[in-house]
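Notebook p. 47: complex prediction with (2S)-2-hydroxybutanedioic acid.
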Amino acid sequence: MISNHLLFRLASGEVFGPNQPIALKLLGSQRSIQALEGVAMELEDSLFPLLREVSIGIDPYEVFQDAEWALLIGAKPRGPGMERAALLDINGQIFSEQGKALNAVASRNVKVIVVGNPCNTNALICLKNAPNIPAKNFHALTRLDENRAKWQLALKAGVFYDKVSDVTIWGNHSTTQVPDFLNAKIDGLPVKEVVKDTKWLEEEFTEKVQKRGGVLIQKWGRSSAASTAVSILDAIRSLVTPTPEGDWFSSGVYTTGNPYRIAKDIVFSMPCRSKGDGDYELVKDVIFDDYLWSRIKKTEAELLAEKKCVAHLTGEGIAVCDLPGDTMLPGEM
Ligand code: LMR
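Predicted complex, structure tokens below:
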């Protein structure tokens, strides 16, 4: 569902621009190959001027050959009664396999955006299995959470969302994520000067963003797809176009070398800026208060616990899985 929303817009050139030809290589599974053939047929029949190649396959070692961008979307959703540790293990296997394949055959400069949940830890597994690709090139998608936060702040302030800037999602793409209203701005002013209702910011706003994916699943009966696809396009666009002055974007990135004293060696969503070359730098001039920092510590603890659960997939020994009881994906309520 996500890919079907995404592919046609990628093929249209709206992200990489009108001078960049595109080759789409679609990775599926034995079970999904017919559907993949159908999508490929529709892409061909759309006669996109920039679309020079559509190919499909089920072997990541073939499909990832020379890939410049890898958008890793497919993962198993958590089924009824399934332990989160089991989900981490099943999906972790997918991302360790895909990491190995990227390491073997993708462009050495490939940028990888991990969407399949739990995306932060899946991205960590992926990068650990791809030692020949810079860890900095791996992202976990938290742009959807940023977009959700922007919309809620704009709604509360009675402005259009384009007046909201500097929104950071800190941490895990889960219900412990921290939408940062301390550093965010509305019309260039700190959010707290515009929205004076601190209780709303700390409780209603924060929870709404954290649980938005779950509420959507309850209403739709399935995960977000169209808005996830839009946020993947936004995430790529943020890396291939210079970040506007006075703004930034959120992405789940590898923490080693971060200036915020977030634990090293995890994938944690943080504020980034890009020159438009596909790379990014972390934003330095952010502030913290006790509320923000205590929330950050909670999402950090969750990611450290997830990391221990997948030690067998990151080459760091035997998995020890002791996840905090309230740890949930955004889709879980
Ligand atoms: C979302 O945030 O909408 C999804 O990640 C929810 C989910 O668990 O699929």
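Notes: The first strand starts at residue 22 and ends at 27. The chain has eleven helices and 13 strands.
Next step: compare against the earlier run before touching the bench.
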